[in-house]
Write the structure tokens for this entry.
Amino acid sequence: MEHEARSAGQLWVEDERGRRRMPDPVRDAAVRAVLLTSVTLIQAVVAFFCSLAGSWLAFPITITAVVSTVVATWSVLDVWVTRQVWRQRNGVVSEPSSTARPPLRARRDEEPDGGGTAVRGGAAVRGGAAVRGGLSNE
């Protein structure tokens, strides 16, 4: 057996798992979403039974169930948004495709200093000197 093959001094054996643990903010949002969704489902069942019984509580519980449905939907969207934000901020390597434009800073560094003409704030710039109306101050 596998248990007998382990050494007597080994207390903890790490089992290989296919999925890693969710990040803390994503897990917190998922727990909130599950709790709010379960409360919403309970309210919907109570509202259904109260309306079958003809109780006066049917209307207030139905209203709170509708509001809880909106809140539960928002919390599920919060899980998705939190997951995307965590991915963008923490270590997801993104490589641009071959059709992506290089960043503006890289393009600016590649341009020659003296020969290029760029437009900044309505004034053409040649070799570092501003030219307005076609007249040069050089």
Notes: Residues 58-89 form the longest helix (32 residues). The mean pLDDT is 78. The chain is about 55% helix and 10% strand. The beta strands are 117-120, 123-126, 129-131.
